[in-house]
Amino acid sequence: MEVLVTGGTGFIGEALVPALLDEGHSVTVLTRQSHPSPIAQARFIQELSELSESETPIDVVINLAGASLAAKRWNTEYKKKMVDSRVVLTQRLGEYFRSVKKRPAIWVNASAIGFYGPRNDEALTESADTGEGFAAQLCRDWESAAAEAAGDARLCLMRLGVVLDKSDGAYPQMAQPFKMGVANWIGDGQQWLSWVHRDDVVAAFCHAIESSDLRGPVNVTAPHPVTSRDFCEAMRKVHRTLLAVPMPGFVMRAMVGEMADELLITGQKVVPQALEASGFAFNHPEIDVALAAIEA
Ligand SMILES: NC(=O)c1ccc[n+]([C@@H]2O[C@H](COP(=O)([O-])OP(=O)(O)OC[C@H]3O[C@@H](n4cnc5c(N)ncnc54)[C@H](OP(=O)(O)O)[C@@H]3O)[C@@H](O)[C@H]2O)c1
Predict the structure, then answer these.
(1) Pocket residue to mutate for ligand 1, from 163, 164, 166, 263, most atoms within 8 A of Cβ
(2) Would you say the CB of residue 12 lies under 6 angstroms from ligand 1?
(3) What span, in angstroms and rounded, lies between the C-alpha atoms of 147 and 22?
(4) DSSP letter (8 states) at residue 152
(5) Of the ranges 63-77, 235-249, 272-286, which one carries the lowest mean pLDDT score?
(6) Which residues contact 193 (CB under 8 A, 6 or more apart)?
(7) For residue 162, which atom of ligand 1 is closest to its CA?
(8) Fewer CB within 10 Å: C terminus or N terminus of the chain?
(9) What is the CA radius of gyration of the chain?
């Protein structure tokens, strides 16, 4: 199939695009970059209008692009950037595809478990209510924009957990103190961390393309979420860290501001009900297995 990927140059995209090519798809990556690093046979474009030059219509849209939530303090200006880079781009995609003769039949859009907001111990399936806070609002707005843009396409809203792999994303930062010999959980350590190995994210996106019955919100998190303390214990085993020094919530809040309250001191216990019901099998269902694979 002809697949258009936005954000294909990022942490998830750099693994997903080669996997799509391996599956026999033709891949076009929409990027802001004038000289992106080549990825095998993928074609790069900077404007949607470049698609019109090709005779072959797009069958599948994979929409990943967006300014990172963890890169900067959440001031008003950066909040606008996080919203616009997702919502406005998604609206532009919608406008473009409304103007072409043959519209995509499948639309796989990234979202995040931030949709559920900070929560306690309840297990959250895709039918759980949305929560409070900036991240939850951003996810709602992005999901609504995707629903509008996708039109009649089969739409999967991939609510991603914390994606782990060695090269980038959250893991290198999380691993740093453990590598230095000082383990730390954040706050009281009871908050849930719904993580997922990047290989399983890539497989879940490919599965979403293939599974004609899968639609709507899809939690993309490993079936065994852990508390921050459990994650810390698993990391200590892998890195052979001896000393355990928790990081108080107020220190984290002073360091990174509002982001700490939504992404670090709080969490949510998310379960991948839709994926599992559709027959998806995780390669890395348990944190010990996933961390061992990452550090192998
Ligand atoms: N990684 C995670 O743990 C995680 C968890 C939950 C949700 N997600 C979501 O999944 C998506 C992909 O994640 P990722 O980790 O691969 O992200 P990433 O590495 O930060 O890459 C995102 C891509 O989005 C594009 N982008 C960045 N800033 C932009 C801006 N201001 N305007 C327009 N495009 C911009 C870039 O592509 P170009 O430079 O090619 O334009 C970039 O390569 C993101 O939207 C993210 O929020 C990720």
Answers:
(1) 163
(2) yes
(3) 28
(4) T
(5) 235-249
(6) 162, 225, 226, 227, 228, 231, 267
(7) 3
(8) C
(9) 19
- Distance between Cα 130 and ligand 1 center (Å): 22
Please give the distance, rounded to the nearest whole angstrom, from the Cα atom of residue 17 to the centre of ligand 1: 14
Amino acid residing at 276? E
Q: Hey, what domains does the chain have and what are their CATH numbers? A: 2-295 (3.40.50.720)
**Whole-angstrom distance, CA of residue 210 vs CA of residue 25:** 12
DSSP 167-220: SSTTHHHHHHHHHTTEE--BTTS-SEE-EEEHHHHHHHHHHHHH-TT--EEEEE
Q: What is the pLDDT of residues 41-64, one digit of tens each?
A: 999 999 999 998 777 899 999 999
For the Cβ of 9 lying below 6 angstroms from any atom of ligand 1, the answer is: yes
Sign of CA dihedral 7, 10, 11, 13: positive
Q: What is the pTM of this model?
A: 0.97
Closest CA to 200 of 24, 12, 17: 12
